[in-house]
Write a structure and sequence with these properties.
Layout: E1 22-27, E2 30-35, E3 38-43, E4 46-50, E5 55-60, E6 64-66, H1 68-76, E7 80-84, E8 91-94, H2 103-112, H3 115-127, H4 140-162, H5 181-203, H6 220-226, H7 234-242, H8 251-265, H9 268-279, E9 294-297, E10 301-304
Parallel strand pairs: 1-5, 2-6, 5-7
Antiparallel strand pairs: 2-3, 3-4, 7-8, 9-10
């Protein structure tokens, strides 16, 4: 007889929505296992028990051991797992998340495959950065230049505000300690934001690789969405952390905690869901169906699955 562990598997419609979950948890040099319907983290400081159905994304750093039973539970509850390198500067892999529907993916693919509709979505992304300006008459090339000017000004303004020297975004993915304090904080902050955005994108059943502004990378759409919030979240926090002159302290942990607090305060997960739905022009009628599958038909679009059509 097969032995049963913990509570029964929850149905998808019983799980918390991605917008209602805790943003992210970063774990390194620890063991992760399962206890009933929760996951437990064990390191030199002790044990922490967390209900993983409330986690948006679990970011696994170096020295992390995770059991099969823990991964099984994490997958069942729709928590995204992202494996990253030392100091979180590289993403190696990710696990499947919440949605089983391809509805948003099909719409995303349709929009990105047509030059006109792709440009329209890209223009909407730029317009979200320039709320008090009308950029509808600018070309994509002009918008890129305008965005570059905006970002340079944001870095300069934060450098002045927090009295932190800024000589540009300079970092080496292979040598984290080679960067100055603000660039270290920016690397850590951006990885946390990318992990959060990635978890929401895959939870909605959208492809991380089909970007509208970015292109040619398996995380292109993640970068598209994350760029909408850097000026508000990661850049000012990174300069603030760097201003504390934490030469001998753990700047990575302090930055991640600051980002996590800001995500909760600004209700960023809920905002990202709404912004993605706005960009993909979804309607109320196009809300994600749960665990439904159809067969494609060139006349009726969808027909019922699980029927032997040889009898018709």
């Amino acid at each position: 007889m097969k032995k049963s562990f913990g509570a029964k598997k929850a149905e998808i419609n019983e799980l918390p929505r991605i917008s209602d979950r805790v943003s992210f948890i970063y774990v390194e040099h620890a063991k992760i296992n399962r206890q009933d319907s929760a996951i437990i983290f064990l390191d030199s400081r002790g044990i922490v028990k967390i209900p993983c159905a409330m986690i948006g994304v679990l970011i696994l750093g170096p020295g992390t051991d995770i059991s099969h039973r823990a991964v099984e539970l994490i997958g069942d509850t729709g928590c995204t797992m992202v494996w990253v390198g030392e100091n979180g500067v590289r993403q190696y892999a990710h696990g499947r998340s919440l949605s089983h529907s391809s509805r948003y993916l099909e719409k995303q693919a349709k929009l990105v495959s047509n030059t006109r509709s792709r440009a329209a979505v890209a223009r909407k992304m730029y317009q979200m950065r320039f709320l008090n300006e009308d950029v509808s008459n600018l070309t994509i090339q002009q918008l890129r230049g305008k965005e570059g000017t905006r970002v340079r000004k944001i870095y300069k303004d934060n450098s002045k505000k927090y009295n932190v020297e800024w000589s540009g975004r300079v970092y080496d993915p292979d040598d984290f300690d080679k960067s100055d304090q603000v660039n270290k904080a920016l690397s850590v902050a951006n990885v946390a934001l990318y992990g959060l955005v990635h978890s929401i994108i895959v939870a909605l059943g959208i492809s991380p690789g089909l970007g509208f502004v970015h292109s040619g990378h398996d995380l292109a759409f993640v970068y598209d969405i994350a760029d909408l919030y850097k000026a508000e979240i990661t850049i000012p926090i990174s300069f603030e952390v760097a201003s504390l002159n934490l030469e001998n302290e753990d700047i990575e942990t302090i930055t991640r905690k600051a980002i996590r607090d800001a995500i909760q305060k600004e209700k960023l997960m809920e905002r990202i869901v709404k912004d993605v739905q706005y960009l993909l022009e979804t309607t109320k009628e196009e809300e994600i169906e749960i665990d439904q599958i159809h067969l494609w038909d060139d006349k009726e679009e969808h027909v019922e699955y699980g029927i032997n059509y040889s009898e018709y």
